[in-house]
Specification:
Elements (H helix, E strand, L loop, with lengths): L2 H39 L2 H6 L2 E6 L2 E6 L2 E9 L4 E6 L5 E4 L2 H16 L4
Antiparallel strand pairs: 1-2, 2-3, 3-4, 4-5
Helix pairs in contact: 1-3
Length: 117
């Protein structure tokens, strides 16, 4: 084979490596979000009592109220952190562990249900 084939093959291998790396990162993101979701499952009865739920879709964990997302959580694989954003006031918080993220989500939920005054 000639130089054209060599160029084609090099490009194909490079693309395969990029796709494999993206899949690996997506798996890491999904694993961390699933871990956080399991922590939230432990308090699902509490969340239900406050009118909240949670779900995961397309690499995002959402805290729901009346089926609408009010807090979204992303896992940043490069930084190994959870990034949480409140849709009601645009507050953004970053935490390193799932446990800290769950506690921070509890604080964010409290701010949503606490009486104003």
């Amino acid at each position: 084979m000639g130089a054209l084939f060599d160029g084609f093959e090099a490009a194909r291998q490079k693309q395969e490596a990029l796709i494999a790396e993206r899949r690996r990162r997506e798996e890491i993101v999904d694993q961390h979000l699933q871990g956080l979701s399991k922590l939230l499952d432990e308090d699902q009865t509490f969340l239900d009592g406050k009118g909240f739920g949670h779900d995961i879709g397309h690499h995002t964990l959402r805290i729901l109220r009346n089926q609408s997302p009010i807090i979204v959580v992303h896992y940043e694989a490069e930084a190994s952190t959870f990034r949480m954003k409140s849709m009601s006031d645009d507050t953004e918080v970053t935490m390193a562990s799932a446990e800290d993220a769950a506690k921070t989500l509890g604080e964010m939920v409290f701010r949503l249900v606490a009486p104003r005054g």
